[in-house]
Amino acid sequence: MVFVWLSAFFLLIALIVLVIYQLMCLADLEFDYINPYDSASRINKVVLPEFALQGVLCLLFLLSGHWLMFLLSTPLVYYNVKLYQQRQHLVDVTEIFNLLHREKKRRLIKLISLVVLLFLSLFWMIWSVLEDDD
């Protein structure tokens, strides 16, 4: 049981790092430290790995029987699938300045939900370690 929580913890840390990286690229673009092409290409390189990690995390919760965590992570996976199907998952170089505020808001909401999942995962990991000691 601890292995599942430990895996979820590291997956969530990786997801948070990817989202923070995307936010940093958008902030660099906003303050004109980087050009739109470089920013868009850097963000687009990590979008699909982020989606894959989120899917693996959701699948891990489903297969391990942690229904609450599965239900909390499902909306993010649904949102990612919806973005992918509508071809809105990649940042467009020509529209990045017009959509900068929306893109930053999307990633901030993702970051907040991932941090909540991280704290819940950490809580359940500690709970399962203490429960195993009894």
UniProtKB/TrEMBL annotation:
Q: Where are the transmembrane segments?
A: 51-79, 108-130
Q: Which Pfam families match?
A: Cornichon
Q: Which domain of life is it from?
A: Eukaryota
- Report membrane topology: Multi-pass membrane protein
Main location class: membrane
Q: Which UniProt keywords apply?
A: Membrane, Transmembrane, Transmembrane helix
This protein's GO cellular component annotations are:
membrane
The answer to whether UniProt assigns keyword Transmembrane helix to this entry is yes
Q: Which GO terms describe its biological process?
A: vesicle-mediated transport
Where in or outside the cell is it found? Membrane
Return the InterPro entries for the record.
Cornichon
PANTHER family in alphabetical order = CORNICHON-RELATED (PTHR12290)
> Which family does the similarity line name?
Belongs to the cornichon family.
Protein name according to UniProt? Protein cornichon homolog 4-like
Species of provenance: Ananas comosus var. bracteatus
